Amino acid sequence: MDLFAPKHLLLILLIVLLVFGGKKLKTLGSDLGGAFRGFKKAMNESESEEQAKQIQGPAHKDAEFPDVAAAKPQPTESKAAPHA
After folding, report:
1. For the whole model, what pTM was predicted?
2. What are the extents of the domains in the chain?
3. Is the pLDDT of residue 33 over 70?
């Protein structure tokens, strides 16, 4: 016996329609569709941003290294309590 047979799906749809009502299902469907559209739009925007970054290329050459002295952390004074 197949779980997703057309008769079973129709029976499930009928039960859901009776429980929630037609107006609630219409609202739920439109909200779900809007969420899918928003997700697709966000995915397409992120892909286009990645493609634009790839087209522009790297901001600096690979052979150049940043100034190492500027990256060194500054020593801080520790205020440790004296031991007795």
Report:
1. 0.43
2. 22-54
3. yes
